[in-house]
Amino acid sequence: MSEFDSEPVSGLPERLPEGESLLWQGQPAWRSLAIRAFHIRKIALYFAFLVAAQAVVSFSSGTGLAGAMKPALWLVTFAIAACAIAALLAWLYARTTVYTLTNRRIVMRYGAALPMALNLPFREIAAAAAAIHADGTADIPLAINSNGRISYVHLWPHARPWRLNRPEPMLRSVPDGARIAALLASALAAYHGMAAQTAIEVNRAPLAKPEPTRPLAPAAA
Questions:
Q1: For residue 71, is the peptide bond before it cis, meaning its omega torsion is within 30 degrees of 0?
Q2: Residue 200 CB burial class (10 angstroms; 0-12, 13-18, ≥19)
Q3: pLDDT tens-digit profile of 51-64?
Q4: pTM score of the predicted model
Q5: What's the rounded Cα separation, in Å, for the pair 11 and 100?
Q6: Are 182 and 101 in contact (CB under 8 A)?
Q7: Pick from 188, 187, 211: nearest CA to 130
Q8: 35: nearest Cα among 135, 113, 111
Q9: 3-state class of 101 per DSSP?
């Protein structure tokens, strides 16, 4: 039993206060997470290279087909095991993650081994971006104000890659990514308008390209 088993609303530690409304809730697509966070394709390619290299070495040294098959079979076994572990981890992380978007904040509840919850009020989000992938999923990184820094280790795999000095939370492998990115952009723009801050420029063009990451809401002045 975890501390989240008693959640009044799935993915939220408490019921939404008056004036706050739920816009969207979802989970990462585990297949996309396996590819982009756990690099299952790269693992498979790595072992395929090892098998090919082993075959070349065996044949060049005069070893027959039977002699080359034994080490190749071991490598294939390790490859299957490694890919299966990566797929299982991706499934577990996706299953234990809930992303929640309201008209005032983003809540990320995640953690397969150590459950955690991250509350990100819109006032702490300096900017947002989106990378839409060919399968329709999106990675949506969130730049946090300087007073809201978070540990990269605590965030992973829900963190923007290679941003170690200034970690950025990231909604990973979000299904129907273009729609959710547009929904977040509209929510951020509406919130900052309500807060009487400098208007945020929102990119309303269709987000159809898989690369690169595109800004949703540049930081307000």
A1: no
A2: buried
A3: 888 777 777 776 66
A4: 0.78
A5: 7
A6: no
A7: 211
A8: 135
A9: strand
